[in-house]
Amino acid sequence: MHSNHNTPAHRSGLGLAERAVRAAQDVRAKGAGDFQQRHDTPERWNRWARRARVARTVAVALQLPVDSVTVADDPDRQYPTRGGNVPGDLITVSDPATGQEWRLLTDFTSPGESWLVLDRCPECGTEVPVVRIACLADLGDYLAPETDLVLDDEAGDPSVHGAGCALVPSH
User: Fold this and answer.
1) CA triplet 123, 125, 126: central angle to 5 degrees?
2) Is residue 139 within 8 Å of 102, Cβ to Cβ?
3) What are the φ/ψ torsions at residue 79 (nearest 5 degrees)?
4) Measured between alpha carbons, how far is 78 from 76 in angstroms, rounded to an integer?
5) Burial of 131 (0-12, 13-18, 19+ CB in 10 A)
6) What distance in Å separates the CA atoms of residue 135 and residue 133, rounded to the nearest whole number?
C-alpha cells in the first residue's frame, strides 16, 4: 500500500508519507551514499545504514535537520578494514538558512563523537583537515573571526598539502 488519500497527512502535505517521498527524491538527486544500490548486498546495506547513523549523529551535534547532512564515499581517502580498504566518509553539512556548506571527515581518535572540518590551506589552497569539532560550539569557535586559529595535527601532515607548502613543518 503506497498511500491513503483519506489520511490527515495527505491533506496537510506535511505528513510522514510526503516527507518520506521527498527525502527519497532528494537523496536520489544528490546521488548520495549509493542509495539506488543499498539493497544489493548485505555489505551495501550495512554501509548505507552506518552512513544514515553518521548523518543523524552529525545533525544532532550541529543542531541541524538530518536532511541537511549527506554522507558519501570520500574520493580522496581510503581506510583499511579486515576486508580490505574502503572509502572513508565525506560528510557534507548544508545550512538550510544560507545554503553554505561545510565538509567533514570522521575523526578516528573518537569515531562517532567528533569530526574534522575540511578547509582550504591558506598557503597551498589544498583542502585539508583543519580542526576537530564535536558540537556546534566547536564549529562556532573555528568560524569566529576573533578566534586565533590553531590548526589540528592533521593539518600539518605533508601528504595532504601541495608540494612546497609553507605551512608544512620542515624536519
Assistant:
1) 115
2) yes
3) -125, 140
4) 7
5) buried
6) 6
Cβ atoms of 105 and 89 within 8 Å: the answer is yes
Residues contacting residue 44 through CB under 8 Å, at least 6 positions apart: 34, 37, 38
- Among residues 54, 50, 58, the alpha carbon closest in space to that of 138 is found at 58
Q: Residue with C-alpha cell 544514515?
A: 52
Please state the φ and ψ torsions of residue 17, each to the nearest 5 degrees. -60, -50
Give 147's contacts (C-beta < 8 A, 6+ positions apart): 141
CA-nearest of 134, 104, 106, 108 to 118 is: 104
| Look-up of cell digits 583537515 | 129
**Cα 17-1-19 angle, rounded to 5 deg:** 10
Tens-digit pLDDT profile for residues 72-114? 888 888 888 888 888 888 999 999 999 999 999 988 888 889 9
Tell me the torsion sign for CA atoms 45, 47, 49, 55: negative
Task: Give the cell for residue 169.
Answer: 613543518
Locate 50 and state its grid cell: 552506518
Find the radius of gyration of the CA atoms of the chain.
19
| pTM (predicted TM-score) | 0.79
